[in-house]
Structures are given as structure tokens and as C-alpha cells.
């Protein structure tokens, strides 16, 4: 039910203004959580969800949103639908995967946090950013002309083989 509550909060808004206010509040809390996690180098986050939400000074729903966002960056993903306020959780963060995923969703306010400096060396962070950029390069395929050799490898001209 908590995951459903989080999804409902994040998807259902009365107006565009209400949606903007919601995301501003959530992103502020999320940034605060990540800032503390990175500063303290907390690779393992464990405890009852409601206690963790209190520890990180947020609501259980917003902490669920944090878990939803980080779930692809932990060693053993959680079954988010089964988590309630009194559920004991334990996650271990894969720092490189987390950094890549932050770059992937263009969350510059998160991958630009100062805490990363003590966790991943600058050259590794630059390498991860470079790897991500490579995934966005579009390679235009060269068009096959009628008299070119057929790409199927038959040895015939394209027009006499697959181009018919």
C-alpha cells in the first residue's frame, strides 16, 4: 500500500502548479537524503522504513520515492510493492551503478553533490559520464545502393538479391 500511495502522490495532481510544488518538495528531500548518504559514505541503509524516514527527516511516502529511485542501483533490488511503514529493509548501494543511473536520468543536482568526491575518484566519474554519452550517439547506417554487393554475403549485387 505504501508504494501505491507513493505512486499516487507522484502521478495524480490537481493542477500543473500542484505538480510543480510536489516535485520541488520531493526533490529537496531526495537531495537531502543523498547528500547525507554520500557525506557519511553510507553504503548500507537498514532499518524499519518509518524509522529511516524519520532519520532522514522525510515522510514514509517520500522515503519510498527515494527507494523507488535507488532500486536499480542496489545490489539486491527490493520488492517495492510489499514494503509498508513497519517493514524492515536493508539495501547495499552499488556506487558506480548509482552514479551512472544519476547521469542517465540527467539528475545533475544529485551526481554533482560534493559527497561523490570522497566515494568515486574524479577520473572514474568522468569515465562513467563518457560511457553514458557513448550510449546516446546515434550512428547513421549507410544506405545500400542498387549496385553495391548484397549485405547478406551472397556475392551478388543488391539489386539482383535482397533488393528485389
TrEMBL record:
InterPro entries: SEC_C_motif. NCBIfam families: PRK05590.1. This is SEC-C domain-containing protein. Gene3D superfamilies: 3.10.450.50.
